[in-house]
Amino acid sequence: MSLRYALLGFLGLDSMTGYEIKKNLDQSTQLFWHAGLNQIYPTLKKLETEGLVTAEAESQDGKPDKRTYTITPAGSEVLHAWLAEPLSFLPPSKNAGLLKIFFSGSLENAAVLRQLETQLELRRKQLRRYEGETRQVIEETVAATGLTREGTMWELVRELGEAHERAYVEWLERAIEKVRQLP
Amino acid sequence: MSLRYALLGFLGLDSMTGYEIKKNLDQSTQLFWHAGLNQIYPTLKKLETEGLVTAEAESQDGKPDKRTYTITPAGSEVLHAWLAEPLSFLPPSKNAGLLKIFFSGSLENAAVLRQLETQLELRRKQLRRYEGETRQVIEETVAATGLTREGTMWELVRELGEAHERAYVEWLERAIEKVRQLP
DNA sequence: TGTTTATATATCACTTATGATATATCGCAA
DNA sequence: TTGCGATATATCATAAGTGATATATAAACA
Fold first, then answer.
1. A38-93 pLDDT per residue, tens
2. Are residues B46 and B101 in the same domain?
3. Domain region containing B11
4. A39 to chain B, closest Cα gap in Å
């Protein structure tokens, strides 16, 4: 149940609505955490009943009330305790793309190559995104908010994303070569 | 809902029980797919009612019946259709370790370093596992079963795992250096 | 002798996550 | 002028996943 910490993490940077958290989530952490609005709104309410965040409703004409959430001192404490707690084990992850490749032994070469080439294209696109858009968003956010220390961490994580995508791309290129030479 | 395909994938290699699938899962795909027995057993039953696998119960003294599952032609077809279908988008993944680092801007250096060093240790252990144990298991399985084409795919996926862990290790080492120099 | 681990399946409660749909307005483009 | 995307929140049903517990035996271990 780390979504609560992701939400607290964003609210630790600035007060905002669930809708804005979702936008930030999509723009920055989508590589390592994601959630839909239907999960974010109820979780925020839960955090509110636990006293970790407070909400200020601002009624708008026509539109539903805008609920701006703010982290409380108790929320900050919970967040920091979680952040400081060292990871005790590597949480297992899921990757349907690798699952497909792993079991592709019984497919004919052409089908495997189609699969590998599609994944290569997707990975190249993602690599370019990390090198460009993601990098820019971080730079601009740091410039706009002055959060340089936070920016260092964001940039670190971005660099890993880039390194991983690069590893994917190089690996897929080699894999395609290898499969081409298969009988 | 890819667990069904993971199960079909294993049954495509050989008939086996849910318990044996779990062992194989833990030994090979745990990096990119995992599941508990409480998820595997009901899913196998579901696949059975759909006619994608058949079960042969073998009563044992004392122990519960051993249900050995076998993939059907219909099951093979479903599996191959899924394997051949190119990934249409990169499925989002979750990584609590990166989430912690991403939001660590408000922590003091010492706490961040503890976090990074713990994760570095875990990643080094995993890297050694890919280089040693995982590699061996693949070699031995290929030698025992003669599944050389499948073995090529398993080895490919293992190589990516190794490359990714190596990227993690190098990145964490650099990250520790960078955080040490932070004011 | 008692405890843990392995074999083998199963159920139950609960949490987490996804997809669909609803409401309501504004601006923009086809 | 019709429809789509953005803003903003919410509910509902279902699916997927986790943790705990139960049964039953044998072997390994301390």
1. 999 999 999 999 999 999 998 766 566 799 999 999 999 999 999 999 999 999 99
2. no
3. 3-84
4. 15
Q: Which residues of B touch A78 (CB under 8 A)?
A: none
Separation CA A28–CA A30 (nearest Å): 6
B26 touches strand C (CB under 7 A): no
CATH of the domain at A11: 1.10.10.10
Q: Which two tokens stand for residue A19?
A: 């809708």
Both A106 and A74 in one domain: the answer is: no
CA pair distance B47, B137, nearest whole angstrom? 28
Regarding whether A30 and A78 lie in a shared domain, the answer is yes
Look at A107 and B115 and tell me if their CB atoms are within 8 Å. Answer: no
Q: Which of B33, B98, B107 sits opposite A80 (nearest CB)?
A: B107
Q: To which H or E segment does residue A9 belong?
A: helix A3-13
CB A114 within 8 A of CB B164: no
User: Cα Rg for chain B, rounded, in angstroms?
Assistant: 21
pLDDT in tens, B110-169: 999 999 999 999 999 999 999 999 999 999 999 999 999 999 999 999 999 999 999 999
Number of domains in chain A: 2
- Cα(B130)–Cα(B145) distance, integer angstroms: 21
> Would the Cβ of B18 be found within 7 angstroms of any atom in strand C?
yes
